[in-house]
């Protein structure tokens, strides 16, 4: 009987402690139904870049509930214990600034987060066929984009590399707001059921003395088993890779855009100087021009113009489609603008 009395005292005490810890947010006890959900296969498709922690933004918990209901299966393995950390994207046909248009306008959008999208999702239309599209944004210059699948029904391997340009205010270690000194890279995943979501990721403090690079790589092997015509049992392995690299570069907004046209003998045909306000939306290239040399410049502390970037654009090169320059969107993040080339 003494033992039973001790249990009656101790057990309520445990529940009381658990209640207190849960109330103040230290202990998180998910609903029992969460443990009965399957974990769909997921793959890395990019990142969502923010200047505040991901969960500082408002988002709907109903999205988590809907996800759980859609994947309910009492006989499956338990779902990830990070389910309550996921911020889901919405598949929408509405226009959102900074997002590219998918098939018939459909695209995945993080409606409740003020972030910079840099991911490559896959979308299945009503006919069951799929396609992959890159989220368009003019805040990250894409240096490398590789979203490809060698099999029609296989999710593509993702290789993304780009450059995010920020003014010196974002690189200050002292003074100013802490939001301007830290950048958050939140990995974005898409699971086998099509859901797209972000998880809280790595925070990097920016130094005013050097640029920085964020990189995330994930890979997994998928094994398919089958019988050959001879009746033998064989298997094949397919690797699915996800690689994201973002170079964060300190840069000043473009004040001058110098465009020089050269012929095949490297003779200068024409040289023009523009500002972001005066450069035309479409730049007509001389028929005799073989290539262009484009230099953007910005003033230093003494007012002298210094080159910020230099680019060679060759006739016939499919990537040489526009003259690129940078403007400040108002908070130290540089927006990439362009003048379309008419060769």
Low-confidence stretches: 1-37, 74-78
Helix-strand sequence:
HEHEEEEEEEEEEEEEEEEEEEE
What level of helicity do the residues show?
A: under 10%
Strand segment tally: 21
Number of DSSP helical runs: 2
Structural class: mainly beta
What assembly state would you assign to the polypeptide chains in this entry?
Answer: single chain
Radius of gyration: 26 Å
Overall geometric form: globular
Mean pLDDT rating: 77
Distance between the termini: 94 Å
**Strand coverage percent:** 35-45%
Can you summarize the main beta sheet? 6 strands, antiparallel
Tell me about this structure.
It is a single chain. Mean pLDDT is 77; it is low at 1-37 and 74-78. The strands form six sheets. Strands 1, 2, 5, 10, 11 and 12 form a six-stranded antiparallel sheet that branches. Strands 8-9-14-13 form a four-stranded mixed sheet, with no helix packed on it. A four-stranded antiparallel sheet has the order 16-15-18-19, with no helix packed on it. The protein has helices at 2-23, 62-70, and strands spanning 42-50, 87-88, 90-92, 107-109, 116-119, 122-124, 130-132, 140-148, 157-166, 182-191, 196-198, 202-205, 212-227, 233-250, 256-262, 268-274, 282-284, 291-299, 305-314, 322-328, 334-342. It is globular, with a radius of gyration of 26 Å. It has 343 residues and is mainly beta. It is built from two helices and 21 strands. Helices cover 9% and strands 43% of the residues.
């Amino acid at each position: 009987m003494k033992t039973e009395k001790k249990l009656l005292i101790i057990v309520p005490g445990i529940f009381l402690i658990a209640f207190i810890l849960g109330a103040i947010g230290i202990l998180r006890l998910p609903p029992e139904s969460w443990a009965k959900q399957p974990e769909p296969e997921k793959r890395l498709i990019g990142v969502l870049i923010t200047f505040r922690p991901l969960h500082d933004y408002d988002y709907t918990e109903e999205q988590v509930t809907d996800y759980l209901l859609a994947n309910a299966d009492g006989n499956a393995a338990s779902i990830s214990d990070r389910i309550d950390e996921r911020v889901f994207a919405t598949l929408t046909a509405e226009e959102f600034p900074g997002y590219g248009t998918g098939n018939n306008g459909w695209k995945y959008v993080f409606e409740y987060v003020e972030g910079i999208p840099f991911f490559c999702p896959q979308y299945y239309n009503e006919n069951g066929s799929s396609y992959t599209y890159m989220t368009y944004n003019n805040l990250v210059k894409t240096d490398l984009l590789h979203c490809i699948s060698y099999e029609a029904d296989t999710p593509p391997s993702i290789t993304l590399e780009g450059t995010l340009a920020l003014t010196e205010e974002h690189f200050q270690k002292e003074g100013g707001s802490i939001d301007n000194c830290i950048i958050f890279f939140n990995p974005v995943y898409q699971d086998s059921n099509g859901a797209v979501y972000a998880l809280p990721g790595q925070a990097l403090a920016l130094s005013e003395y050097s640029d920085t690079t964020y990189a995330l790589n994930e890979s997994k092997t998928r094994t398919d088993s089958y019988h050959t015509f001879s009746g033998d049992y064989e298997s094949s392995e397919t690797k699915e890779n996800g690689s994201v690299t973002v170079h964060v570069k300190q840069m000043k907004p473009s004040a001058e855009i110098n465009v020089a046209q050269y012929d095949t003998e490297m003779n200068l045909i024409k040289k023009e100087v523009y500002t972001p306000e005066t450069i035309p939306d479409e730049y007509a290239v001389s028929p005799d021009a073989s290539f262009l040399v484009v230099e953007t410049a910005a003033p230093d502390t003494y007012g002298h113009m210094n080159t910020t970037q230099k680019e060679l654009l060759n006739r016939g090169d499919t990537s040489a489609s526009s003259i690129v320059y940078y403007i400040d969107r108002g908070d130290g993040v540089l927006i990439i603008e362009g003048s379309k080339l008419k060769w």
